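Below is how a single chain appears once it has passed through the pipeline. First comes the sequence as given, then the structure the pipeline wrote out for it. We keep one example in the README because the format questions we get most often are answered faster by looking than by reading.
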Amino acid sequence: MIGDHNLTILLMLAIKRYTSAIFAFLVLIVNALPSNVDSLRFEVLMNQKMLDDIHLDVNFINSFSITSDNLILLSSTDQFYVLGWGGIAPLGGKINGNFDCFAFTPDNYLMIISNNDICNYDSLGNLSKRIKLPSVGMGISSGSYVMYVYDHNKNEQKNALYLIAKGGKYSKLFEVTAPINSVIEMHNSILFSSENGLFSFNLMSKEVKALAALPKNEEIKSVAVDTSSDRIYFSTDNSIYTLKGSSPVFITDKFGGGLRFFNDGLIVFNPEKKFLIRIVGIEDKVKLPQISRAADDKKTPIMLTNSTIINLVKEKLSDDLIINLINSSRVNFNVSVDSMIFLSNQNVSSSVIKAMKNAVKSKTINNSNGNNTSNNIITNNQTTQNNNTSNTDNIIDKSFYIIAGSYPTEQQANDAIADLKRKGFPDAGVVGKNNYGSYRIAYKGYATNEEASKDLTKIKQTINPSAWIFEKK
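Resulting structure:
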């Protein structure tokens, strides 16, 4: 990880010596723009004149990123540089080995792709191989909780997007026939560009949708998102566009390049022309209406189900990402004991199952409209109970039972059964009294001990470590 000491070296650079060059370039760009956008504010962070003034002759690669200290990280094939207002400085030593691209992980570690390896980088310039990738020369992009790598080699017949979870495990999300140029997350979807098309891939439905297309001779090189307004920007080498519905809206044809949206401005980096600009006020000037979210993220967000979670697990999404989706989406989970056992058998972790149960519990509370009578609260497909009927009348008539607990009073037993039913155990009920006169409450009854034993293991792992089997004589 890049340390604060290395990054603060930029603060010692003088800004004044570049003021005239910045102003001259700013005037040049503003005057070159069409008259309908000539009042946009451009912040020129780097240009050829600035590099000439400090005698820095470097060929940058296409990758760039924003550091945790809000500086811009650029690179040649063997040296990193940090950039801020009026200055640029080398970061660390020369790198021992060439590389193609880089990105910061969600926890701010710098990951570099060299050949077909993801590598770490230290201040001495050493690359340490960490993850072997399926292809050579892949691109890399950071998500909220995971990393993405993708094929963008024109020699590949099939080009895939992979997700890399914590621990270095990666899984293929999809394949396309053309190289993938840019990848970025947006809510429950991934936006990516390939040739002249802009697409979205839904993480839950696995559906790929075309969002926009440019003429055949224009290749979309980069995509950025303003998360405050859900505004999508994309660029070619020479032009920048945004979306209005499904139609591209032209912003400028005076320059293009790699894009990042940072704070309230769009950063544009063109390594060949060696300039980097931040554009502020695009929406105000162009007067575009706010884009509604992609079809999957509109006012009726996707409903997560048990099958959705199983599919996400099969795709090897991290638990953190799945839990984040659960917490930010509408849910319709079945959390009955049979369903939870099935989820566990499908390799759904106990932490994800717990998040599913909490989501159902939160939904139940929100749907109860302030009704505190526990017998009236229902979830999923349960039937509303009559307030005048005691839960302890719900006697399970089986031979073997998984016991949730015992309660000394009928009221406590009623409350416990109602709570279990709210949590997705419709068969919960009382199984007589113990030697102390307390009501035994069971999750479910079974005809054989083998059936009960099989479920007990899962219940103890995911719900209640103190659960046990009671045999009715």
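Residues 1-39, 288-301, 369-389 have pLDDT under 50 and may be disordered.

See the next section for the split statistics.
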